[in-house]
TrEMBL record:
Gene Ontology process terms (BP): positive regulation of Ras protein signal transduction
Domain of life: Eukaryota
Family as reported in the entry's similarity comment: Belongs to the STK19 family.
Protein name: Uncharacterized protein
InterPro entries named among the record's database cross-references: STK19-like
A Pfam family per the record: Stk19
Amino acid sequence: MNRKRIDLEQKLYRTQQTIHKPDSYGIERRKVNKIKNELINSHNNKEDDDDFDNDIVATQIESDSINAANYLIRLNNTGIPICFVHQIYSILPNPTTIDNELQEAILSGKWRKFHIIGSVEDEYVMMKVQDYCKMIEEIKSEEKDVISKYMSIIQDERYFSQVTISTHGLNEFGLNDLGIKELVNNGLLIPHLQVNLYWFSIRKQGYFMSNITHGRTEILRMISKRPTKDIMETLLKAKKLHKTILNMDFLIHDLVGSGRVERLRIT
């Protein structure tokens, strides 16, 4: 492979590695596509007889919604790698596009969506399947067979997009009442209000929601105490929180995305 191709491949790699925040206006995506086109043109150059690795050209960057989810998860310092779906709405402008991109990631088996107990009915969080499987594997259970069967459910494409599972569905994977109880005790299932139905669950979600609730309350109280009932975002970010370990940026995305506060632009 000649020097020009090597330089282009290294440039492509560096460009993709530096995309951390959501690319709302497609600037970084255009940079990557430009480099890919240069690589393709280099490959099509008849004067160059070197072999070319098509996998490099086919490399795809994540969707803006997944970039946003990754960005938010990095802000989440509870040690539980999740973010709310509505937080992504606070970053990107088109909810329909966000929903479609997240659904595509879920159906690919790379991400899962969970309903969080303690939030309102339509609040969901996103988590990488890889992180969830790691969480499952960390369980110190004597019932290794139960954990293995649950892992099989998570990796079954029929359940990629499901946030609940029935007792019958669990039984199909060889999980009896004792096995289901074991999963509930380990925080992987939560009984639904509907009989014989369970929520797929994230362990230690109570700890996460406790920090979310305390953070929301503390920030809303700060704003409500002001005579104008508003505050400059830069001033708010400079304030220290005492009731939560979550940082201000993560909580602002939560409050804006859920509609609890409104972000106004001053011109």
